[in-house]
Please model this.
Amino acid sequence: MLTYEHFNLQQHNTFGISAHCKRFIEYSNTEELRQILPTLIASNEPWMQIGGGSNLLFTTDYPGTILHSVISGIEVAEDGEEDVLVTAGAGICWDNFVEWTLRHGYYGLENLSYIPGEVGASAVQNIGAYGSEAADSIQSVTTIDSTDGSTKTFQRDECHYAYRHSIFKEEGVRGRYIITHVTYRLRRTFRPVLVYAGLLRELERRSVKMDELTADELRQIIIEVRKAKLPEPAEIGSAGSFFMNPIVPQETFDKLQALYPNMPHYPALAGVKLSAGWLIDQCGWKGKRLGPAGVYALQALVLVNHGGATGADIVRLSETIQRDVFNKFGIQLHPEAIFI
Ligand code: EPU
Model:
């Protein structure tokens, strides 16, 4: 276990924002976590768990303790003829895990290649891309209940998964359960998920024969598509998509579509999902800056730190964009990034 006092979180958030916490503790197994919790709770100071920091925006210094898991280890928990259950430590880098699954011939996560972050956060945020979501493959999530140190395992249907949502984000639950391991159900047979229009166009452009496509090829193509659209965290600070794609009632969509026939849209559970990137782009924000904070030139859904931006700079930009989108379309955008 490693403990640091007055720690700069710049390397622990992909925005690259310089903000300090009072204490930073990195633990490498469940026992260490159990040891830390009683002292933390008794201290009456705030504390929180972070993952890879790819969805966080530090708007100010943090006056308490930040916990970070480096729980590693990948284990085949159950080896069936068609499916395998694979359990991974919450602190593993997400893309290393995806790479490991494909190397072992276990399929299902290939469309989620190259998403920044860690295994634990994948189960909180229900990360998604190119027609797949983490929830499609999650079997169960093992946690420690911070109120008493007991182990609680959530089965998939107890996790309330929806678009970028889980029980771990819900009021009253948020922060209580610390994820230590996630178990995924993966397939031994590769069945590509090719429903995302942008991905299909890319496969066509490359003249890929669908019946010859391998999981490794699909992974490489997805990595290239992501690299072409999204900034590399090591080069330019961002939190990936800053806003969630809004889901609007059918009537709202019908009115908007009459005005904007080319507006991208997708079917959603409770209405129609619109593209926040397109809405922001239509407001003329793509590639624009507000001080050291800006909108990425290749994808308007991504806010970036051009260097030296504070959390407050990003918030100012985010609020200005929300206001412009609301004034033009009557739609309220909600950040996907979590403000601390
Ligand atoms: N669009 C524009 N201008 C832009 C950006 C997008 O017109 O600046 C249009 C595109 O032309 C397209 C549509 O909007 O018609 C959708 O864009 P894109 O395919 O890039 O996907 P997205 O909806 O903007 C979502 C996820 C991404 C994920 C991609 C691919 C959310 C919040 N974002 O973006 O996730 O990689 O789909 O599946 O759902 C992330 O969460 O950090 C992330 C990158």
Q: What stands out?
A: The domain at 74-187 is CATH 3.30.465.10 (Uridine Diphospho-n-acetylenolpyruvylglucosamine Reductase; domain 3). The chain is about 25% helix and 30% strand.
